Every structure is written in C-alpha cells, then in structure tokens.
C-alpha cells in the first residue's frame, strides 16, 4: 500500500511538470543563439517593456544589436493589462513553440531564455550571445505574437 502511494505521488509530480515548456533543449546547452549568462560576470543592461497600445501588443524596443560574446541582462517590465512573456530563440523555434502554446495555452516556461510576467511586474533574463546571426524574441501566449509582440536581435 505504501509503495502504491509513493508511486502515485511520483506519477502526479511527473504529470504536473509535463505542462512546463522546454522548447527542445536542456538548460546548460549552448544553443544557436547563445547560452544562459554568468551572474558573476559583467553584463550590458537592456530594458525591455511589454505593453498593449492602440490595439497592438509590443515590446519596446523591438530591435536590438549585440556583439558576439556579449552578455546581456534583460530588465523586463510588463506595463500592460495582460500577462506577457518573452522567449529568446531562433525564429523557427519560436514559431514552432507558438504552435505548441496554441494547443496548450496554460503552458508555462521553466527555461533560462524565457520569462512570463503578470501585469505591472518585473523580471530579468541573463543571456550570453555566443554566435553571430539574427534571432527572435516573442511573446508566445496565443494571439500575442500575431498582435505584434515580437522583435529581432542582431548579433554581430
């Protein structure tokens, strides 16, 4: 009986974490667009505001340029009236993950390249851009990217 209770508890824990999004990578990996930053090293601070305005949803700014190897501390603020998130990735990854979010709108992210914020809340992402290229950041809550909530990161 005790073993059945333990197994049932373990199964419940496993199933409760199944709704957490990990868009196809483990946390320590060096991804196409970089890797989690090191809090012991200096970082350029970039403030990003999330908001709704005139029927649009947007990030301000929606275009960033960084140098390859640069570490960036994204200081995030949701000035909107709705929950918003930011997910750093390749455009292909974010579009694919956006489709998954439409099927599972209650999905939450537990990944160092993503942060979801309630209205009037703040948060941070610390990221090192290790490869040159053009990358995406999007709010993947269903309908938000389509309403204009995306941006581009150019790594030189």
Automatic annotation (TrEMBL):
It comes from the Bacteria. Residues 1-21 form the signal peptide. The keyword Metal-binding applies. It holds the Pfam family Copper-bind. CDD domains: Cupredoxin_like_2 (cd04211). Keywords: Copper, Metal-binding, Plasmid, Signal. Residues 47-156 form the Blue (type 1) copper domain. This is Blue (Type 1) copper domain protein. It comes from Methylobacterium nodulans (strain LMG 21967 / CNCM I-2342 / ORS 2060).
